[in-house]
Design a protein that fits this description.
Arc Repressor Mutant, subunit A, Tetracycline Repressor, domain 2, Regulatory protein TetR, DNA binding, Homeodomain-like_sf
């Protein structure tokens, strides 16, 4: 694929993610996605396919990006503590770079993941393998594991970060309405939340006494 074609595909995916995020799969229209991408529908069909394929491509693109970056970042981290922080911070970075993926993922969960493709499932499997390696490092460094199942470990992270990011507008309204006396409790960034979550998660692991 040429550089121009790659750029066109990237624009289409970015536009489609915004439309699917705001309107869901059923509400999003290919005409609007084409117009906002400044291409015709034939171009979308040529580069990606129909509406189903476009939706699947958006999810696979983000999950693939996440799995690849997570693998690189975790491998660069030497200790269990640094691996946990890297894992959570990488996920937070992906969410911030792809702001529309959070509501899309929450919709998928609500819809029992019926639109997750085999490729998306495969990417999720790669992520679970990485988490299993993180837990293996913890064990090798003498930590007791509060939970050995990597799926539960990942579910805690996904649910916490996705929910936090998706509810930022709600917290802004609550802050403006004076719901709590100290508005700084509500006005925290995704990065701050990720750091706090990593610290809490890490603190649940304890060194085993010999």
């Amino acid at each position: 694929m040429s550089i121009k074609s790659e750029k066109t595909k990237a624009i289409i995916l970015k536009t489609a993610s915004a439309e699917f995020s705001a309107k869901g799969f059923d509400g999003a229209r290919m005409d609007e996605i084409a117009d906002k991408s400044k291409v015709n529908k034939a171009t979308i069909y040529y580069h990606i396919g129909g509406k189903e394929e476009l939706y699947e491509a958006v999810i696979s693109d983000v999950l693939g990006n996440y799995a690849e970056r997570l693998s690189l970042n975790v491998k660069k981290s030497r200790t269990f503590k640094s691996k946990i922080y890297s894992y959570i911070q990488t996920f937070a970075e992906i969410i911030k770079e792809h702001p529309h993926i959070a509501p899309m993922m929450l919709r998928e969960v609500a819809g029992e993941g019926n639109r997750f493709t085999d490729d998306a499932m495969s990417q999720m499997g790669e992520i679970i393998k990485i988490i299993r390696e993180i837990l293996k490092t913890a064990k090798s460094e003498g930590y007791s594991l509060p939970e050995k199942n990597p799926v539960i470990f990942h579910a805690l992270t996904i649910s916490s970060l996705l929910f936090f990011y998706s509810t930022i507008p709600v917290r802004k309204r609550a802050s403006a309405a004076g719901v709590v006396a100290d508005s700084t409790e509500l006005n925290i960034s995704l990065e701050e939340f990720a750091d706090s979550f990593a610290r809490i998660l890490y603190s649940s692991f304890h060194k085993e006494h010999s």
